[in-house]
Design a protein that fits this description.
The protein is an alpha/beta fold. The protein has 15 helices and 22 strands. The strands form 5 sheets. Strands 1-2-4-6-8-10-12 form a 7-stranded mixed β-sheet, with no helix packed on it. A 6-stranded antiparallel β-sheet has the order 15-19-20-18-17-16. Helix 10 runs antiparallel to helix 15. Bound molecules: 2-acetamido-2-deoxy-beta-D-glucopyranose (NAG) (8 copies). This is LRR_1 domain-containing protein/Pkinase_Tyr domain-containing protein/LRRNT_2 domain-containing protein/LRR_8 domain-containing protein.
């Protein structure tokens, strides 16, 4: 009986023992290795005593899967952990669901192998000393629901790829040094969010505006949503020097934000000083204008300036209301995109974009608009449009289908009773006008001859394409409408808008480029485009803006100035001093000058057609620099090889027959 009992006990034990052994063996061997490796490389307080001969599943802070085959949770809050997380340790815990290392003194970067923690649901790293960009590995943890990296020293921008975390319900980024704009974070189920006390600026995206103001407080310059409204997308015209008060919105915003009286007093003093300076400026301008008639600045002519001032007084408040308050209108009038475009945003996105004035032109004001998702476009706000919506749309359709590498693509338009917008590609390299005239004499890199030739040819090609392939008159050729592509070729912008303005307003409100006959007929033609292009070539050659005060005499334009200099004595005086440093380019300069002079013939019929202009430039170049146009060269000595111009080319330019 005892034997039988013993046997039974033996059986029982032998039955139980293997299973016991299996249980012991089923501990997470690899994870244990990784954990031990982590602890041995990371200084910590003594109360974490992980017994290497025990199962890791028994350790303080470690939780395992039901079958003990892997570590599911690791919680070591306030454990006095110091220094960076060593690579190949925690990142090896590939089955980890919850990781909490909050309230330690961990520093440095989040190791990149954290991207292997694809099953992680919760990540708590707050109250440490991590300092790096937003950890890229985190955006791969696509199952994350809670992410708290607050109260660290993270910096850089918050990436749009946070949207990868589609299951996120809580995102805590406060008390760091994140900067830039807030991306439009929209994981759907987000119910807790905080980015307070960072260095963020720009508008609060709509997707986040449901969170309270305290979630955004203490940043550099956030606005919108629960915070005071942003400056409207279209800033009202600069306060006129006639002592009108600054726009009320900006005042409200400032005083809401900074409540200390000292700050308010400071602002008041600053305002007073600014107002005084403005007045001073205005008075000086008045005086100067009285002394020298032709405007000092090439772009805004007297007429334009007067208009701008007029609209300041009359139009400010109403136009602001139109754009921000007229949402019913906006609903009915959507932003219309053309086929083949790459953009997808709506009018609201556009209105929320941060905007910066690029320039006030003759047909309206251009803005650079940076959308929330980082897209940058140019928005042109047209003024004085007279045509009906139907006519406007027809013209836009014609312009929207124009696709040429030397023509800036029109991507979208918007038409409402009060607002007409055009959306173009943004060209970061800027305009020819800025390149030629911007900060002269202040040690900038001058535009070299090869690049000037390249711009002349590519702009001619763009214009020729408009004329021949699309039957479109550009109508507004000037150096600020010739934009530089990244490859240094040029593209023409702002084409074909004249039909929108009717004949009551003079086309070409910038006089310097206007063909003489246009003053009377008020109609732009292919031939008047050619004239304007000739002026543009002269501008490239002389470095002088048309109609600029430095031309000397009152009322003289660039073509007549060139003629007068050339007639007196053919000197290098006519050419841009910045070109004098390049050698062996005289012959080319003279050739281009001849082409320019035929373009600016007084009689329209004597001007060549644009395709002929293209051909003339191509041919002059082919014979001289052996296709050097297409390579951008920094070598000033490159060009025609060394022979001085023949004496006959030093005579005043004769008309070339096209
Ligand atoms: C972590 O994983 C890597 C790659 O699988 C391996 O080479 C390394 O030894 C592991 N580290 C530890 C501490 O287990
Ligand atoms: C570690 O665990 C083993 C087995 O569980 C035990 O015998 C040993 O005493 C423990 N060591 C310490 C320091 O707790
Ligand atoms: C897993 O480990 C824990 C702690 O050591 C233990 O209590 C539990 O019984 C183990 N479970 C299995 C299925 O082995
Ligand atoms: C982590 O992922 C990388 C590649 O994504 C892989 O090479 C590495 O072995 C992984 N480490 C672990 C511990 O799984
Ligand atoms: C977003 O998640 C996918 C996997 O779902 C991953 O392949 C991709 O790299 C992630 N993007 C970023 C920016 O992390
Ligand atoms: C935070 O990081 C900045 C640099 O990004 C550094 O200058 C600063 O000392 C860091 N602060 C702390 C508390 O580590
Ligand atoms: C935000 O700040 C950055 C850097 O300080 C600056 O470049 C950017 O223009 C700012 N954006 C806005 C909308 O203020
Ligand atoms: C955001 O964090 C700040 C600082 O920790 C806190 O004062 C504020 O109440 C928080 N706001 C929300 C909505 O959680």
């Amino acid at each position: 009986m005892a034997v039988i009992l013993d046997y039974a006990v033996f059986l029982l034990v032998s039955l139980l023992l293997p299973s016991h052994r299996v249980r012991v063996n089923s501990e997470p061997v690899q994870d244990k290795q990784a954990l031990l490796s982590f602890l041995s490389q990371t200084p910590h307080e003594n109360r974490i005593q992980w017994n290497a001969s025990d199962s890791a599943c028994n350790w303080v802070g470690v939780g395992c899967s039901p079958d003990n085959s892997s570590v599911y949770t690791l919680r070591l809050p306030g454990a006095g952990l110091v220094g960076p997380i060593p690579p190949n340790t925690i990142g090896n815990l590939s089955q980890l669901r919850v990781l909490s290392l909050r309230s330690n003194r961990l520093s440095g970067e989040i190791p990149s192998d954290f991207s292997n923690l694809t099953l992680l649901r919760s990540l708590y790293l707050q109250s440490n000393e991590f300092s790096s960009q937003f950890p890229g590995s985190v955006t791969r943890m696509t199952r994350l629901t809670r992410l708290d990296i607050s109260s660290n020293n993270f910096s850089g921008t918050i990436p749009f790829s946070v949207n990868n975390l589609t299951h996120l319900t809580g995102l805590f980024l406060e008390n760091n040094r994140f900067s830039g704009n807030l991306p439009s974070i929209n994981p759907g189920n987000l119910d807790a969010f905080n980015v307070s006390n960072n260095l963020l600026n720009g508008s609060v995206p709509k997707s986040l505006s449901k969170f309270p103001a305290s979630a955004f407080a203490g940043n550099l310059d956030l606005c919108g949503g629960p915070l005071p409204p942003c400056e409207p997308f279209f800033p009202s015209p600069a306060p006129s020097p006639y002592g009108s008060q600054p726009p009320p919105t900006s005042v409200n915003k400032k005083s809401n934000k900074r409540l200390s009286t000292a700050a308010i007093v400071g602002i008041a003093v600053a305002c007073a000083v600014a107002l005084f300076l403005l007045l001073l400026c205005f008075l000086m301008c008045l005086r100067r204008r009285r002394r020298q008639r032709p405007a000092k600045h090439p772009k805004p002519t007297g007429a334009v300036a007067a208009r701008a001032v007029g609209s300041t007084e009359a139009g400010t408040s109403s136009s602001k209301d139109d754009i921000t308050g007229g949402s019913a209108e906006a609903e009915r009038n959507k932003l219309v995109f053309f086929e083949g475009g790459v953009y997808s945003f709506d009018l609201e996105d556009l209105l929320r974009a941060s905007a910066e004035v690029l320039g006030k032109g003759s047909v309206g004001t251009s803005y650079k608009a940076v959308l929330e998702e980082g897209t940058t476009v140019v928005v042109k706000r047209l003024k004085d449009v007279v045509v009906s919506k139907r006519e406007f749309e027809l013209q836009m359709e014609a312009l929207g289908k124009i696709k040429n590498e030397n023509v800036v693509a029109l991507r979208a338009f918007y038409f409402s009773k009060d607002e007409k917008l055009l959306v173009y590609d943004f060209m970061p390299a800027g305009s020819l006008s800025a390149l030629l005239h911007g900060s002269r004499g202040s040690g900038r890199t001058p535009l070299d001859w090869d690049n000037r030739m390249r711009i002349a040819l590519s702009a001619a090609r763009g214009l020729s394409y408009l004329h021949v392939a699309e039957n479109v008159v550009h109508g507004n050729i000037k150096s600020s409408n010739v934009l530089l592509r990244p490859d240094h070729d040029a593209a023409v912008s702002d084409f074909g808008l004249n039909p929108l303005f009717g004949t009551s307003t003079p086309p070409h409100r910038v006089a310097g480029y206007r063909a003489p006959e246009v003053v009377e007929t008020r109609k732009v033609t292919y031939k008047s485009d050619v004239y304007s292009f000739g002026v543009l070539l002269l501008e490239l050659l002389t470095g002088k803006a048309p109609n600029q005060a430095s031309l000397g005499e009152e009322g003289i334009d660039l073509p007549r100035w060139v003629q007068s200099v050339v007639r007196e004595e053919w000197t290098a005086e006519v050419f841009d001093v910045e070109l004098m440093r390049y050698h062996n380019i005289e012959e080319e300069m003279v050739q281009l000058l001849q082409i320019a002079m035929t373009c600016v013939s007084i009689v329209p019929d004597q001007r060549p057609a644009m395709p002929d202009v293209v051909r003339m430039i191509e041919e002059m170049n082919r014979s001289e620099t052996d296709d050097g146009l297409r390579q951008s060269s920094d070598d000033p000595s490159k060009g025609s090889d060394g022979h001085t111009p023949p004496p006959e080319s030093r005579t005043p330019p004769k008309a070339l027959t096209p």
